[in-house]
Amino acid sequence: MSEKLRLPAEESYAAELKALATGDQHCPPGWALAPRQVVTYLMGGKANDGTPITPKYVGDKRLIETAVATLATDRALLLLGVPGTAKSWVSEHLAAAITGDSTLVIQCTAGTDENQIRYGWNYAQLLAHGPSREALVPTPLMRAMESGKLCRFEELTRMGSDVQDTLITVLSEKMMPIPELNTAVYAQRGFNIIATANNRDKGVNELSSALKRRFNVVVLPLPDSTEEEVAIIVKRVGEMAQTLDLPAPKNVADEVARVVSIFRELRSGSTEDGKVALKSPSGGLSTAEAIAVMIGGISQATFFNDGKLTPETLASNMIGAVVKDPVQDTAVLGEYLETVLKKRRGFEGYYASLTDLI
Length: 358
Fold this sequence. Notes:
With 358 residues, this protein is of the alpha/beta class. The protein folds into two domains: 9-219, 3-Layer(aba) Sandwich (Rossmann fold); 226-357. It has 17 helices and eleven strands. The protein has helices at residues 9-12, 14-20, 35-43, 61-71, 87-99, 114-117, 123-129, 140-147, 161-164, 167-173, 209-212, 226-243, 252-268, 287-304, 311-322, 328-339, 348-357; strands at residues 45-46, 52-53, 76-81, 105-107, 119-121, 136-138, 150-154, 175-178, 183-186, 192-198, 215-219. Strand 1 (45-46) and strand 2 form a beta hairpin.
């Protein structure tokens, strides 16, 4: 087993990628797999040699086909959606399948500046020898352009608008000027950009219209049904538990279904049957947060409850996910517990544990 806490997708799923790479393929320039094989890798199926391919994304296949087709053109791809819709997950696996390297990534923040996007300088070299290519420090974007690979921008809209617009020249001209050296870096075939953006965060900087035109936007929705969301969470929790060496209790799927039921009702503002209107908490209660709740509960069960996953081991993690505003969200959760969960069979443990904590 690797000592790395988390392997990149191209290492975790190396066997599947190798199996998909066999056989006759018509790949776009710079691609490791043909577009059909990329979709199979994301959605699951079988390779030409019969190797089973596990699904990495549970959802509409047409969205993945659109994303893959976009990356085969000269337009960049923007994966848009609320938190927990697997934007980063899809971005990583697309890069792993298409170019075999998902590590060329820039995490965008309010403090990200142009030097982190375009290039930086080794100031010791710069002072000793002046501006030169040896003194230049390439960013993941520059390395992707030079090697013909995909560069990932996580949370693009967290960057300031003026920094975002440094991408316009790269996307339209497929080159990056280096005026200090009176030269430029030209993108090799296969280069493109995958960006993700959260359309619900209060800290978002809107993309300029000029930059928006250079992206094809694919909106990743939340899971339509409870069954689909439960399936996603059970799968991811199993994978993460294995990575963390946490034994998965036998009742994981049952508890996931209960947690998802609570989250979906609070998120939607009504009970599943639509008979009771509810107030929603300030947080998103996304699929990703439900996964975090389950992993936290399994860890607590493993080390402090003899491996038994119970509502008590999950309740404190659920409070952390639901109560973002101590006043407003506590009142919302309390009302939900008294009007809905108190009367529901099979949820007695959650009612008691959550009531004790708020």
